[in-house]
Amino acid sequence: MEQLSAMLRQPWPWYVAGPLIGLTVPLLLIIGNKTFGISSSLRHVCAACMPARIPFFNYNWKQEKWNLVFALGILLGGFIAMEFLRDSTAVTVHPHLVKELAGYGIQDYSSLVPNDLFTWSQLLTPRGLIMMVGGGFLVGFGTRYAGGCTSGHAIMGLSSLQWPSLVATCCFMIGGFIMANLILPVILSL
Amino acid sequence: MLKYLLAGTAFGIILVKAELVSWFRIQEMFRLQSFHLYGIIGSAVLTGMLSIWLIKKFGIRTIGGEKINIPDKKFNKGNIYGGLIFGLGWALTGACPGPLLAQAGGGATVIAVTLLSAIAGTWVYGRFREKLPH
User: Fold this and answer.
1) How many domains in chain A?
2) Does A166 touch chain B (CB under 8 A)?
3) How far apart are CA A14 and CA A139, in angstroms?
4) pLDDT digits (tens, 9 = 90+) for B70-108
5) Residue A85, number of CB atoms within 10 A of its CB
6) Residue B35 CA to chain centroid, in angstroms?
7) Keyword Membrane on this protein (chain B) (predicted)?
8) In contact, A174 and B84? CB cutoff 8 Å
9) Fewer CB within 10 Å, N- or C-terminus of chain A?
10) Domain end among A61, A86, A111
11) Residues in chain A closer than 8 A to B118 (CB atoms)
């Protein structure tokens, strides 16, 4: 039992976590004929809270309530993982990355999100504002424009052989490479 | 509804324990410094593909006895433009929508701001949808 608990607390290897994530696809199909996707929940929140006569938000979002409940579950899962399955060791990453980030004063690897970047006190700095508020906006705008995020396109879409999802997934990666390698260094030096 | 709550909870725990919610891990992926996230996404897609193939092959139905239906996605230019924009945001926040939820639930309260901003982004997309190329 103790061994199991110790195993669960460690970071899970990719070959355990990946298949488990993949199994979410048949799980949602079998329990309720639902297609896996998370970013839709952001649209449902808009439809529920501020539809403002915008056609895109005027639909019966209550029929999609399951998606909001699923999203709430993820929030709860995050809480359980941090509260009961917490691993005290810091995340280990490639030495080149450690060296690069140290150049921007990012050295704290101990918490769920980097303490040197994502905190309330960082929120009103130019760097924090761009990363948290700007980044969030790009995620919300981009996923809806693309018609899905990593879950809906990369996992669900590719699993069901939808070629538009392959296009979208390639674009996610291209955007990520451009940001991480070309733009982020400028933002981090602010 | 409880079944969806439980499915989401399990998914959230996996996201955290796989370190898929880590900004550092995402940076590693986009610098090709680690196989970890590629392994996760690759094996997740293979598992999903195999599951859907089995569902179709054996005509597996839902627990309610319904025929399983997966709607086709239609291509539009938004898949490209939106995809690129989301990619930029993904590397910046180090999180896609699922991990943002898990981070906020895991105690990173400031991520609530990022989530609200993501909702605002979705709203702005809906507001200007007709003017954007699709």
Assistant:
1) 2
2) no
3) 24
4) 999 999 999 999 999 999 999 999 999 999 999 999 999
5) 15
6) 19
7) yes
8) yes
9) N
10) A86
11) 42, 136-137, 139-140, 143
